[in-house]
Design goal:
- It is a single chain.
- This protein has 15 helices and eight strands.
- By secondary structure, it is α/β, with parallel strands linked by helices.
- It has two domains: 176 residues, Rossmann fold; 150 residues, N-(1-d-carboxylethyl)-l-norvaline Dehydrogenase, domain 2 (Orthogonal Bundle), CATH 1.10.1040.10.
- An eight-stranded mixed beta sheet has the order 3-2-1-4-5-6-7-8, with helices on both faces.
- Helix 4 packs parallel to helix 5.
- It is globular.
- The model has no long low-confidence stretch (mean pLDDT 95).
């Protein structure tokens, strides 16, 4: 296959390097200098300093050239830039190409998932569109540490074809037909990771983190099912797997943001010191609005949104969550499980 990866951040670069070992792959970088560094010196000094890339990986700052003749187009730009980049790419995306989103966010204003943005902007049938998501920290994948991910697509045959193209000895790609569930899992886990980071910044331990991960998973499942997802999806890589990694790893940008907030640092200072996007900062208000629109209770998400918005301190958010009426642990989740027999 000829694969075009649009976006030379840490994850886009990692995937392009991984794919280029088995497929003709070209990476588009907005910055001409960065494209040259990747193409000629096989490294990305901005987002992956000290990590070598595949010598067969090509890179360019010419968007049209990067998409020419592509069999697969992988869009790896943050959700807040996603629509604009896809609109710029639209004239060059081959009509027969499979299109894969690897962005884990919800569009502000519309509440759209990235696959929905792709379908709208490209005028593409949903069967052509996939989402790659899971517990995938870029530097670990680039270092060829054993990892697994999930490729979600409504078209099972297309998903299997992409699975074969993307799987390696250390990067295992599983398929799932639940595009909604996989995208919601990938987006909402960033919100819960900010909450987990806040707990770290406040000095709390593993009891707190376990509670946040577990109750956060309940929130993810509630919203996903309200939007038509299969509840079983959230027990897999796109749900529990991604949530665990993002809430626990020191490499997690969203957990890092939360940790800074919990330690008393202003959000502007935390973001200003980062050279990569923490999707949860942009996505949290969009997810909170999506939950409100669909009448889905998401108390952790609401409190994270309030902390990010500056209307609640981290300590006040914890106090409010701990005095929130707990009710039955699984009472609202049991009806989600399909009846047996």
């Amino acid at each position: 296959m000829r694969i075009s990866v649009v976006g030379a951040g840490s994850w886009g670069t990692t995937l392009a390097s991984l794919f280029s070992d088995r497929n003709e792959t070209i990476l588009w970088a907005r910055d001409p200098g960065l494209a040259e560094e990747i193409a000629l010196r096989h490294h990305n000094p901005v987002y992956l300093e000290g990590h070598r890339l595949s010598p067969s990986l090509r890179a360019t700052d010419d968007l049209g050239a990067s998409l020419e003749g592509a069999d697969v187009v992988v869009v790896a730009v943050p959700s807040r830039f996603f629509r604009n980049v896809v609109e710029s790419a639209r004239p060059f995306v081959p009509q027969t190409a499979d299109v894969v989103s690897v962005a884990k966010g919800i569009e502000v204003g519309t509440g759209a998932r990235m696959s929905e943005v792709l379908a709208e902007v490209l005028g593409a049938d949903v069967g052509r569109i996939s989402a790659l998501t899971g517990p995938n920290l870029a530097k670990e994948v680039l270092a060829k540490q054993p990892s697994a991910t999930v490729l979600a697509c409504a078209d099972a045959e297309r998903a299997e074809r992409l699975q074969r193209a993307m799987t390696t000895d250390w990067f295992r790609v599983f398929t799932n037909r639940d595009l909604v569930g996989c995208e919601i899992g990938g987006a909402v886990k960033n919100v819960i990771a900010i909450a987990a980071g806040i707990g770290d910044g406040l000095g709390y331990g593993w009891n707190t983190k376990a509670a946040l991960i577990t109750r956060g998973l309940a929130e993810i499942a509630r919203l996903g099912v309200a939007l038509g997802a299969n509840p079983i999806t959230f027990l897999g890589l796109a749900g529990y797997g991604d949530l665990t990694a993002t809430c626990s790893s020191p490499q997690s940008r969203n957990r890092h943001v939360g940790e800074g907030l919990g330690a008393g640092r202003p959000l502007s200072e935390i973001i200003g010191a980062m050279n990569m996007v923490a999707e949860g900062v942009t996505t949290t208000p969009a997810i909170a609005e999506l939950a409100r629109r669909h009448h889905v209770p998401m108390p952790i998400t609401r409190k994270v949104a309030a902390v990010l918005g500056g209307t609640l301190s981290p300590a006040e958010a914890v106090l409010q969550l701990m005095t929130y009426e707990p009710g039955s642990e699984l009472g609202d989740l049991v009806p989600m499980v399909p009846p047996q027999g």
